[in-house]
Task: structure prediction
Amino acid sequence: MGPKQGRKVFTLQTLPNLESGNPFSGSVGEAAGFSLHAGVATNANEREKLERLCRYITRPAVSTKRLSMTRNGRVRYELKTPWRNGTTHVIFEPLDFISRLVSLVPKPRINLTRFHGVFASNSQYWMLVTPAKRGRGKTVIALNNQTHAEKRASMTWAKRLKRVFNIDIETCSECGGDVKIIASIEDPAVIQKILAHLDGSANSAETELLPGCRSPPSLPAGLFA
Result:
């Protein structure tokens, strides 16, 4: 964006120190464009160290302490650690800098945490690498026995109720037998009428169970004489 649209951002660089090398080379794994830093570890009882680690993970994308304006009105950002090519500062046009910040704002209703490879929830090896041992691995055999149409079929309302609200309408609560679904009522007016009727029937049943009102028994004369 701006007058320098499509051009590379202006950077300030110094000669990299080739002797020091990469301080994270021995504790960083890189594969398929992803990197995992495993150089920091903490025990369960080290609460202060765990708090510092959580603060570092949840830090904002831009540090205002290292952000400044140049004399000609550009935005200068100082890097905390120089890059491998020696870059120490990055200078943006104001409009360019705002566009970079806007790109960091996540879209609405999007998952902020994503997993890749065997850590993805759809991976058939997820149950082998998670402590809870849950995942698609237990259902791989069952899915392989299904036809293509059965795999593509959408989930029924009974299965949705059981998964979301833990309500099993396919099993009888009295005898534990299978329940056959005969209809699915979706009209709000009909649903309201049925619920009102059931509510009235429940209230009348509770009223019938209560004993009728009666006066206290009369005491025989001279009982307390």
Q: What stands out?
A: The first strand starts at residue 10 and ends at 13.
